Amino acid sequence: MREALLLFFVVVSGTGGEICVTRAMKRVGEVTDFRPLAVVRVILRALKVPWMWIGVAMMALAFFSLLAVLSIENVSFVVPVTALNYAAGALGGKFFLGERVTPRRWVGVLIVCIGVTLVWLGKR
Amino acid sequence: MSNSRFRSAVILFSVAGPFRILVEFTASHKIIANYVDFHSPKAAQAAHSSASFELATKSPENRAIMNGGVFGCIRVHRDENFCLSLAIASRANSGFCGSRLSASFPNSGVWHAHCVMSSRGLHFKTYCMLLIMVVFAPLGNVLLGKGMKNVGSAVTWAPSRLPNIISLVFTSGYIWLGVASLLTFFVAYMLILSWADFSYVQPASSIALLVVALLGYFYLGERISPLHWAGIVVICLGVFVVGNTPPRTTEVR
To answer: Which among A76, A122, B9, B77 could bridge B228 via Cys, Cβ 3.0 to 4.6 Å?
Structure first.
């Protein structure tokens, strides 16, 4: 029960955080310069966008939940289950970022969900 | 060309390969005039040297087709009912691969631009970043798993033991190595998200799941049942289905 709750936090908070970070980075603009100094400058610019902070906070919550659940379960179980992120990600990309999710992507997401179910069943 | 009665729509675009851009007007308004314009010296130069832009009004009522080279801007002037001017700008190598852009104009219906093109520059850059992500994310997870197994199971974590557990977590070498790996992953992730869709990057990177399972099996000695393996393979299959969609479906603001 406790691990299910923790996994829920890992998935929902993690995906929510990533969506916020995406929003922030799209506002920062495309990165074309990969010299270390320029990358640092991009990161500093990203930190000025509030979405980035909300995203980082949610990702931190997801991270500590991940640590807790990793102390209970095997990595090879936990990480595949967090693939539920893809379902949450497609939904989030569609509803919060206005990205167009093609039918093909939905089929992929469905297959991922079936896989997660198998992993869950295979554990017992 | 510049008549004060006219408002204009502008698409700025840049691509790495040959492309064709199709601008369709579904409104019944006539296109009064249209022409091609270049917005940077580099772009103008590239256009002069490598490609001849031609803008042909195929069906004068509703369609303009442009074939061309590297970087440019199509500007379509329409009559004064055209209330909104549009600028879709994209930076070098970003391209709107195979995506359909649309914007609606009050009083003049819906306006579509469809780009069919290859943008190898974008894909190469994207794949490099994906590779970094696929290596460092699983490594980070496995190191965290190893570190946390030393700390002890969260099932028995009493609130009073929390400070003790936190200190154990933060003094573990494995945890810090894992965090460093995940940070490397995260930076690559942030960079890639600045040009590619979230719903593209995330699925494409999930091949990392297979890497995690392999590392768990060979390095940590975890027992993985056949059904569990099957599940992981099915997840990767799902990822494969998702992975071939275009990197960007939204316009840059």
So the answer is: A122
Question: Are B94 and B202 in a shared domain?
Answer: no
Which residues on chain A are in Cβ contact (under 8 Å) with B91? 29-30, 32
- Is B252 part of any domain? no
Does residue B98 belong to any structural domain of this protein?
Answer: yes
Selected residues 38-97 of chain A with any CB under 8 Å from a CB in chain B: 39, 42-43, 46, 66-72, 74-80, 83, 85-86, 89-90, 92-94, 97
Q: Is the pLDDT of residue A119 over 50?
A: yes
Give which of B82, B87, B19, B28 is closest to B60, Cα–Cα: B28
Residue of A102, A105, A110, A113 for testing the chain B interface, max B β-carbons within 10 Å = A105
Task: Give the domain extent around B16.
Answer: 10-118
* Token digits of residue B23: 């601008």
CA distances from B8 to A18, B36, B110 (A): 37, 12, 15
Q: How far, in Å, CA of B146 to CA of B181, rounded?
A: 14
**ipTM of the shown complex:** 0.76
> Which chain B residue lies closest to A110 (C-alpha atoms)?
B238
Q: How confident is the model at residue A88 (pLDDT cuts 50, 70, 90)?
A: confident
Residues B77 and B34 in one domain: yes
